[in-house]
Design a protein that fits this description.
2 domains; receptor; mainly alpha; Retinoid X Receptor; zinc-finger; 17 helices; two-stranded antiparallel sheet; 378 residues; zinc ion binding; Erythroid Transcription Factor GATA-1, Chain A; transcription regulation
């Protein structure tokens, strides 16, 4: 009876930010889930907003909310970051844009065959992005829908990580398969499928490398387990002196063309092990969390030159996957306090962005060579 009364009392209060029904105390004040999630993302991701109208006094109770004024009101009413113990180094790092488009200047640096292959891939992507999305009959949340789509990507024949290729034609086949597989995964999301064609291309160009980086790292850890953490440095040292010099990266960039593997510095390996490999091993992410990371990598569009409507769609997607993950922790896993775990997952996302190049080299190469336990033993 007391619990029912407390629940009723909580529901009678309104969010101090937007005046909608409160979901209880969040960051020290009564707030709805949406405003709490907005505040958390703003703090964790180090976002900086400006007032849309320039007055810095916008109404934040309407349907279209000024993010700058919304955050200022969060601070004004007393929202505190004391319970948001994020990785501050990661927050202070500005993520640089990934330049992956193949323009005329870039193509001039490649041989004719390479440029032709890249143009062909981009044409295939345009055709795919122009197709209507097939409606799913599954009554599942977005996170599980996208995890199922991920399993579909991993089941594609020809999706390979890093290969010793002799010809550009072989490399182009692998490149095309991976790119189209990632694009198909993105098109499985109804929000992405509804974007204008140019916005789809911008979002894809800006995030496919990050998507592939996490896919390789997560699969590498999933397949090889703790032995990766124990022997990864020795493997890279040994590989750099023997096999790495003869291996080509099949996925450095659709614009850069095939390139030789570069040596990996010991400090890079140590950083990747600490920031990415160890968290992946410790967290042992479940399908909801894996899908959350993939979607977060795609839909954080702060550094991309996309339309305001696309930014609003991205906010909607991030709100939805945050709510679904909250419900998964609360109702499926009965996890009363998941803040520390979520902190590590968000830190992992930024570590993937920060260590992208090294991760692609290490995890991609280990997957390509078919690493077995006896190969890594001292």
């Amino acid at each position: 009876m007391i619990q029912l009364f407390l629940f009723f009392l909580r529901m009678q209060k309104e969010c101090q930010v937007c005046k909608l029904p409160s979901h209880g105390k969040h960051f020290g004040v009564n707030a709805c889930r949406a405003c709490a999630a907005f505040f958390r993302r703003t703090v964790v991701l180090g976002r900086r907003y400006v007032c849309r109208g320039g007055s810095e006094n916008c109404n934040v109770s309407g349907k279209i909310i000024c993010r700058g004024c919304r955050y200022r009101k969060c601070i004004a009413i007393g929202m505190t970051t004391e319970n948001v113990q994020w990785n501050r180094d990661a927050l202070s790092t500005t993520v640089q844009k990934l330049v992956t488009s193949c323009d005329a200047d870039q193509c001039s640096k490649l041989d004719n065959a390479s440029c032709t292959a890249n143009v062909s891939i981009m044409e295939d992507l345009r055709k795919l992005f122009s197709q209507d999305r097939q409606q799913s009959c599954e009554d599942k949340g977005l996170l599980l829908q996208m995890f199922n789509a991920l399993e579909g990507y991993r089941a594609i024949d020809g999706v390979q990580y890093v290969m010793d290729l002799e010809t550009l034609e072989q490399q182009s086949v692998s490149q095309r398969t991976c790119l189209l597989g990632i694009a198909n995964w993105m098109m499985s999301n109804k929000y992405f499928a509804m974007l204008p064609l140019q916005e789809k291309k911008l979002l894809f160009d800006g995030t496919w490398k990050q998507w592939l980086t996490f896919e390789r790292a997560q699969m590498c850890v999933q397949v090889h387990g703790e032995i990766i953490q124990k022997h990864i440095t020795a493997f890279v040292r040994r590989g750099s002196a023997t096999k790495l010099d003869s291996i080509r990266s099949d996925f450095q960039s659709t614009a850069d063309g095939p390139g030789e593997m570069r040596s990996v510095a010991e400090e890079d390996v140590s950083r990747v092990t600490e920031d990415v490999v160890e968290p992946l091993l410790d967290l042992n992410l479940d399908p909801h969390e894996i899908s959350y990371v993939f979607n977060a990598l795609v839909w954080h569009v702060e550094e991309q030159d996309v339309l305001e409507s696309t930014r609003n769609t991205a906010e909607e997607v991030l709100d939805q996957i945050s709510d679904e993950l909250h419900e998964h922790y609360t109702y499926d896993l009965k996890m009363a306090n998941y803040a520390a775990r979520l902190n590590r997952i968000l830190g992992l996302i930024w570590a993937i962005k920060k260590n992208q190049r090294v991760l692609l080299m290490i995890c991609g190469t280990m997957a390509a060579l078919g690493i077995k336990q006896e190969m890594l033993q001292d």
